[in-house]
Each structure stands twice: as C-alpha cells, then as structure tokens.
Amino acid sequence: MAATKAAAFLGSQQCLPAKTGIAVPLSKGQLIRVINTHGKQVVDTWAFDSQDPTSHLSMEHTRASLLKISIGIGDTLVTNSRTPILTLVADTSPGVHDSLIAACDSHRYAQLGVKEYHVNCVDNLHEALKALGTSIRSVPSPLNLFMNVPVAGDGSLSFAEPVCEAGQSCTLRAETDLILVMSACPQDVTPVNGGACADIHFTVT
Ligand SMILES: [Zn+2]
C-alpha cells in the first residue's frame, strides 16, 4: 500500500502549503529534495519505518552516532534502534539545521501567550500520519531542516531566523522503506521562520 502511495508523489514537484504537514512514503533508495522556496521556512522532519513506526529517526541516537549536533552532506541519520534511516546526500543551503529543539505544540503556544488554538507541528504530524492510516503514541524529536539555533560558547541557545536563501534545498535518501513526515512549521510568535510562514516544495525521485 505504501509503495502505491509513494508513486503518487514521484517525479513532479509538490507544494506543502504554509503551516501544514504531509506524510510521504519513500521506498529504500528514493530521494526527496526539500526546497526552501521562500528561504526562511523551517521544516520539521520525521521518518518512521514503514513496517514498524516505533522504529523512527532519532536525533539523540543520530548525535551519538555522528558525534556532533549538526548534520552535513554524507551523514547518515539513524533510528532509535541505531540503524540507518536517512542520508543527507545534497545540501545547497549554508548547512544550518537543528537537531536539538522539540517540535512546536499546543503547550508551546500557550506558554508564549497565545490564547486561541494555534496550529502546530505536533498536530500536523499526527494528522499527516492519520491520512495514511497510521498513528504513533509518542512524538520523536524532529530534524529541523533550515532551523537556525545558534549554540554559544557557554552552551546557551537562541532562536534566530534561517540563514537559507530562496530556492535552496536539502536532499535526503531513504535507507529503508519509510514514511517521511514534514511540517512547514507554523511558528509565527518567535523569529524562527523569519517572521512569516511560507509554502515549501518537494520532489521525490
Ligand atoms: Zn513548529
């Protein structure tokens, strides 16, 4: 079933509208190019094993494997079982991505003073998986493509706007059959998306 749905995304460029999420099945060896169409949009990214979603991309296991907090071209990211799941095969951006920060959720916006419901990456993740007929019980930390979280010499962190420019992209290769979920982060309270949430585009080959 996943293979059939994967075919629906093959070839032509797809749009992921601002503030929304999507689940994209990928077969082992397929590539997904994630294009920062307008340049300042963060893309929260998860990957789940097609056969067993409890095996998923794990940033803490990836940091232990790579012995660094950022990813570069050629780096293979691993699951919570320490098996390869994604490789960054190309990156035309300056290479600033985040592996530390949790996805935004309803609690985050409440703490930021937002009184009404605010769309968020965690809900986007659950809705995207539901659209494929699957679900998860706990939310892994995402790979935050294009997110700029400067780490100071004393270990302190800050939220800054992406250093990426319009049209720059990252290409990830699936190292197993998986479901990739992307959320065009709807964070518009802090400056992580450059102050305006935007569409992104992607291609699967
Ligand atoms: Zn978010």
Task: Describe what is shown at a glance.
By secondary structure, this protein is an alpha+beta fold. It has helices at 2-9, 59-66, 106-111, 121-131, and strands at residues 14-16, 21-26, 31-36, 43-49, 76-78, 84-91, 143-145, 168-174, 178-184, 200-204.
Describe this structure in words.
The protein is α+β, with helices and mostly antiparallel strands and 205 residues long. The chain has one domain (2-6, 19-204). It is 16% helix and 27% strand. It contains 4 helices and 10 strands; from the N terminus they run αββββαββααββββ. It has helices at 2-9, 59-66, 106-111, 121-131, and strands at 14-16, 21-26, 31-36, 43-49, 76-78, 84-91, 143-145, 168-174, 178-184, 200-204. The strands form 2 sheets. Strands 1-10-3-8-6-5 form a 6-stranded antiparallel β-sheet, with helices on one face. 40% of the residues are buried. The mean pLDDT is 94. The protein binds zinc ion.
